[in-house]
Amino acid sequence: MTQAVIDDLMARQGEIRARLDAFLRLPSVSADPGFAEGMEAARGFLLDWLRGTGLSDVHLLDGGGEPAVYAAWKGAPGRPTLLVYGHYDVQPPAPLAAWRSDPFEPVEKDGRLYARGASDVKGSTTIAVEAVAAFLRVTGACPVNVKFFLEGEEETGSPSLRELVRRHGDLLRADAMISADGGRASETIPTINVGARGIAGLEVALRSADKELHSGRYGGAVRNALHEMARLIASLHDAEGHIAVPGFLEAAPALTPKQRADTAAFLLDEAAFCAEVGAAAFGEPGYSLRERLTLRPAIDVNGMWGGYTGAGSKTVIPDEAFAKITMRLVPGQDPERAVALVAEHLARLCPPGVSLRITPKSGNSPASSLSEDHPLLRAGSAVLERLMGRTPVPVRLGATVPVTALFQELLGIDTLMFGFNLPDEDVHAPNEFFHLESIPLGLRGWAMLLAELGGMTDADFAPFRRA
Amino acid sequence: MTQAVIDDLMARQGEIRARLDAFLRLPSVSADPGFAEGMEAARGFLLDWLRGTGLSDVHLLDGGGEPAVYAAWKGAPGRPTLLVYGHYDVQPPAPLAAWRSDPFEPVEKDGRLYARGASDVKGSTTIAVEAVAAFLRVTGACPVNVKFFLEGEEETGSPSLRELVRRHGDLLRADAMISADGGRASETIPTINVGARGIAGLEVALRSADKELHSGRYGGAVRNALHEMARLIASLHDAEGHIAVPGFLEAAPALTPKQRADTAAFLLDEAAFCAEVGAAAFGEPGYSLRERLTLRPAIDVNGMWGGYTGAGSKTVIPDEAFAKITMRLVPGQDPERAVALVAEHLARLCPPGVSLRITPKSGNSPASSLSEDHPLLRAGSAVLERLMGRTPVPVRLGATVPVTALFQELLGIDTLMFGFNLPDEDVHAPNEFFHLESIPLGLRGWAMLLAELGGMTDADFAPFRRA
Prior knowledge:
Two copies of one chain form a homodimer.
Chain A: H1 2-11, H2 13-24, H3 36-51, E1 56-61, E2 68-73, E3 81-87, E4 107-109, E5 112-114, H4 118-139, E6 145-151, H5 161-167, H6 169-172, E7 176-179, E8 191-196, E9 198-207, E10 213-214, H7 215-218, H8 225-234, H9 257-264, H10 270-275, H11 289-294, E11 298-307, E12 316-317, E13 320-329, H12 335-349, E14 355-360, E15 368-369, H13 375-388, E16 393-397, H14 402-411, E17 415-417, E18 433-435, H15 438-454, H16 458-461
Parallel strand pairs in A: 3-6, 3-7, 7-17, 8-16
Antiparallel strand pairs in A: 1-2, 2-6, 4-5, 5-18, 8-15, 9-13, 9-14, 10-12, 11-13
Helix pairs in contact in A: 1-4, 1-15, 2-4, 4-15, 5-14, 13-15
């Protein structure tokens, strides 16, 4: 049965590619209201397409922002119900001059398909829809119950996602989620995502005087807000690269032998990794690069400013200084607690007479993890091993996938990231592309995954669902 | 003779005040091209006035920017020739809404004359011109040779002053300069300025990668330009408030017993000084507030920036960071050497893989000093003692007076600051005012100073002139 579906998918490559090209031609840039028509067109395209596949209940879900596209097939009672996540919005194409071709006119070259959104994530979203559609077309049924949830605000930080899930939680109820976003880590070594770091942030504002002071009249006699900010920021790490906020690392659990073995199985070349972006390696001693990037927390100042920043010179002692800080968290670290620890540390070091104002940022998200015996992970691993001829290496993402944490929080379900994009595809940059060989590979993978999950029951997922 | 001149000045208070009011009505804002007419009008006012006093050679001196107003009287052969410095330009009046009266319509209230430029420095400039004019009017001669040099770019940092002095050096040749700018430190305790701190500056730019990096993909693995900048800035001082740049303090000479005694004679209340501007006291231990402000160097970061500084959050690891640094220098410190020491210190601490670019700022100026036995100082002290009934305390300015350093460098002459404005007059701020009692006091003081200097010869100044 599954082989017939795969054969059908392989036979229809031209048709699938034409559909992806049509999808890519729609400039669905969510960040820029000037692209509202493109957003509208992409939603219309998806509604028409999904309706033509045999999926039912195809409609838009409104959360107050850009609506999401929904479609369901519920013809497999007793089988698991999978929410399939993708997004139809894309990053702005700027800077346009850096593109070698029109970002909204797909161009094939050297086995790559160039277009904005090709990699992130219209390519993998198309693969997911085509795989389900092929089951319905060839066999009249899908091995599992499926609910598509295709978001329109992923590239703008999902501002109304929480509200959207709140309003439509009943419709979205599922045993687990499979995401078309969150791609492969390597072209040759199969990997499977088992988690992502969390995120938390705060803004720091210092005030050292009522107003800017003249450095000739006050220099040498009073505190300078920028000096104090520099001291505070410098205090976040020690010279060796350890995070120096008391209590912060204590909440990050020691790496397990399995975690160390998994990261060692998929080593990153630190010199090449840094050289590619001209960066200098730095970070917590005693951990490999991949461990630092995925299994250890990080604190980064994202912006810092104060005083006179224009041309020339202004001899002021700044009275105010500002910094934006975000941290990447690992399982075991509570985002609110992490912010509190940093805030307490800064308050301890802030000298008398200087006022410190901390504003926690919204949108915090804890790290997420798939437990080792989760059916999603078992199914995904089995499929990748058959597909790639090699046991997949469990990997974690250094970045945060807020949608994963949000669906865990609001719907109590875990997510398997099963996208097929690769790390070199210039996501968010000019000349974004998708490796064309990923299309047949992804179609096969998704068909096999749906079949694999179809061999399970919803009861298999029950132990892993929360409330 | 001098008493007759003073009697005449006192009898003409109404006339003098009317002239000052007319001068204040002219909006001579040099920083804003929208006030070009006001600048032109102020120059015309001064040319007419000076021509009416019996001064000769009244004309504009062009240096490529706002011209200066020049006038001379050279009828005292053998007597010293004094360059008299003032400026006719004023600060912009913004923020206008904070003014209780029109900044360009002088208003008298509670013994104060409110108007932009009343304190800085049309009041004291008027006093200087009136005193010379009174000698010419009453006695037909001035006790010394006088050359007025009234600048039009003081409030914009004197961009063409160097060129102006270069072009017109012959005309400006003198034995010494008396400045109407640089006022009194106290209403009750007579003080005499014997020097000012110098200034030097640099800009620091760091680059830690080829581009901004995503904190999810790189956080914990690479250097962050803002972290490095914070470390570098924090390293300029130790936790106690000492400048921590190796070699920097070594060039600042130990305070002499006389300097310590002079500053002790005119103590500043540190708590009140800081409370007035809401600042926290901080600085080199072991020195009084006034010593730190005038006899010890200071390093201040005037501006610092990098990364994302807009609204909300952007999870980047910034690749660039910037800081503007200026320092106040004391006699013995060479500005170029001071910049080099800071640059070397930063380079030493900058980690491998992070590039550091130092741009020394133009307009450096060494500290200036009047030697203890300079005829200007002897004359000024004697006059202030008679005028105020108390020996004046020698004080130094914490700020820099570039015109003083420039005239020392280009014309080899020293400057006595003999302005009568007071520190509370909201200079550069809304509701600037001049204490009206300073007008008769200043007129008497200037008349007495001219007479005192008239008792000297140009030979008395020769040992203090440099090439």
